[in-house]
Specification:
By secondary structure, the chain is α/β, with parallel strands linked by helices. 56% of the residues lie in helices and 18% in strands. The chain has a 6-stranded antiparallel sheet, with helices on one face. It has a 6-stranded mixed sheet with strand order 8-12-13-3-14-15. A 3-stranded antiparallel sheet has the order 9-10-11. Strand 6 and strand 7 form a beta hairpin. Helix 5 crosses helix 12, helix 9 packs antiparallel against helix 10 and helix 14 packs parallel to helix 15. It is elongated. The two termini are 27 Å apart.
């Protein structure tokens, strides 16, 4: 329900705070007092079109804030949660209208688009009048209202799932068929390419491994040449080792002739010889380590170059060759065995369609039953609303299959016997339309309805008896949802649980302008307002008595 409304600097309203209660609330006042401003302000807060003309003259911007108290599982809260907006506690919608025409929208103080604000607003409030019957304009709403009346939300959801399964089966079949056709067009190329790739047998990561191995072997080839030259230096004709060995033997033979002279030279020469032998051994070991098979290098290069050539041919990376091979094999398998698979997918489509059709026909039958019941319920309300010669009809025709079935539902009316029935919005006059709407809403009660319903002067142009019937039905409707009515009918006002008076008053301080005021009336003030509505500007004792009678009835 709408719990509170705050308006700042909108048209004639400077600052207005209103708290609302459950049940039936009426708003009355003289023509031009500002009732339409109040509804325009609420409409703006709920995502209606912005207009710079709404901003009070002299103000830079206007602002409207509406606070709602709705159940935790209400669809509006789900919308907030889906958009990552805090959804606990009161639900607060706010709209700021600037004098330059720009608007800003907020949900629970989070900035949002006007589209999201409007989507939330449509789930919170319905505003109905002679020229604003949104629930009756959209044919999809007719179907939704009928489903709500018949309690068909579960079958509709199940049918939606069947529709999704059918569409999924079609997509799978069509995708498989497209792959078969593509494979058939390229069959020869695919087979030749697959034979090449089967022979090549590419593996993931193989290019990196081969390139690393090739680089290492090429480096080893260069190092091995240098090591061979070094080993040759130690082992060839120019090696210093034999020279040193011969020299040491000569000195050792003559050491006896010259005692003490050669020993000091022989020791370091021996150490040098040991170091040279150690160096030669190390060089030989390094040469053995660096040794490689040139044929292995050749095989590595051939494999690497073959992989890269295949990658160039197929315009892909080398690492993509293995997945490409699998994909080509799959495409050929689809071609070779695709007809069997296609037949199975065709059967799946037929089964899914059959399931959808069965559920859709069952839902159509249930809608037919619900339609007749809703016609009867609305018909029971029409005589008291002086529409006893009119008929409310629900036209059900077959439509293209969709997520909600195969039915096109449209509300029709016949205003007089012998006339042709037609769409409610085209056949009924403004006053008739309002009364048909009220009869429909009473019949639906809280089914398929927003938690707050606002009726804008739907009693215009009707007599006292009809106004009384309208008041009775508004009060009955208010037992299940919050109802607000802008009215000029005292019979409607007398049925209210809460009564607000809207008036224009001069600004205090002598300024030459007026502002709109809204006050909640107590029992005495309410009696006087209803008396004014009965008698006019001068309230007579008879009018007060009549007002007392209406309030007591």
């Amino acid at each position: 329900m709408l719990a509170a409304l705050s308006i700042r600097d909108i048209v004639l309203i400077e600052r207005l705070e209103i708290d609302f209660a459950r049940g039936l609330t009426v708003l009355t006042g003289e023509t031009g007092a500002g009732k339409s401003i109040l509804l325009d302000s609420l409409s703006l807060a709920l995502g209606g079109r912005g207009d710079a003309g709404l901003v009070r003259h002299g103000a830079a911007q206007g602002q409207v804030t509406a606070v709602f108290d709705v159940a935790g599982d209400h669809p509006a809260r789900r919308l907030l949660a889906e958009n990552d907006i805090e959804a606990s506690g009161d639900l607060i919608v706010r709209r700021v209208q600037s004098a330059d025409g720009r608007t800003r929208a907020f949900l629970n103080d989070s900035p949002v688009s006007a589209t999201l604000l409007r989507s939330v607003g449509e789930r919170l409030v319905e505003i109905h009048g002679q020229h604003d019957d949104r629930a009756l304009i959209d044919e999809r709403e007719h179907r939704r209202l009928l489903d709500a009346f018949g309690g068909l939300e579960g079958p509709v959801a199940a049918l939606g799932a069947a529709w999704s399964a059918w569409r999924k089966a079609i997509r799978e079949r069509d995708g498989h068929r497209a792959r078969i056709e593509a494979a058939r067009r390229e069959a020869d190329y695919l087979r030749a390419s697959l034979e090449e790739l089967d022979a090549l047998k590419p593996e993931a990561g193989e290019e990196t491994e081969l390139a690393t191995r090739r680089h290492k072997m090429m480096q080893s080839e260069k190092v091995a040449g240098d090591l061979s030259e070094a080993v040759e230096t130690f082992e060839g004709t120019h090696s210093p080792i034999p020279v040193i060995v011969t020299l040491m033997r000569t000195l050792e033979r003559k050491a006896g002739a010259l005692p003490g002279l050669a020993e000091s030279a022989l020791k370091p020469m021996g150490e040098a010889l040991d170091l040279l032998e150690a160096a030669r051994g190390a060089l030989e070991a390094a040469l053995r380590e660096a040794d490689f098979d040139p044929r292995e290098l050749e095989r590595t290069e051939e494999r690497l170059f073959a992989l890269r050539a295949a990658a160039r041919k197929h315009s892909c990376a080398v690492d993509a060759l293995a997945p490409l091979r699998v994909r080509m094999a799959t495409d050929l398998a689809d071609l070779d065995h695709g007809e069997e698979r296609l037949a199975a997918l065709e059967a799946a489509v037929e089964a899914a369609e059959a399931d959808y059709r069965v559920q859709a026909r069952a839902l159509s039958a249930a809608r037919e039953t619900a339609a007749r019941a809703l016609e009867i319920a609305v018909a029971a309300e029409l005589p008291a609303l002086k529409l006893e010669r009119a008929r409310f009809l629900i036209d059900r025709s077959e439509d293209a299959p969709g997520t909600e079935g195969i039915d096109r539902i449209e509300f029709h009316v016949q205003t007089n016997p012998g006339t042709r029935a037609g769409p409610m919005m085209k056949v009924a006059s403004g006053g008739e339309l309002s009364r048909f709407l009220l009869a429909l809403k009473v019949s639906l009660a809280d089914k398929g309805s927003a938690p707050t319903l606002i009726f804008d002067e739907i009693d215009t142009g009707v007599g006292g008896a009809v106004a009384g019937a309208i008041g009775q039905r508004l009060a009955r409707l208010a037992e299940t949802v919050q109802v607000m009515s802008v009215t000029h009918a005292p019979q409607v006002a007398a049925r209210a649980d809460t009564h607000f008076l809207i008036s224009k008053e001069p600004v205090a301080g002598g300024e030459d302008r007026v502002v709109t005021r809204v006050v909640e009336l107590d029992a005495d003030a309410r009696r006087d307002e209803i008396a004014r509505m009965l008698s006019g500007e001068t309230i007579t004792a008879e009018a007060r008595a009549a007002a007392e009678s209406l309030l007591a009835g």
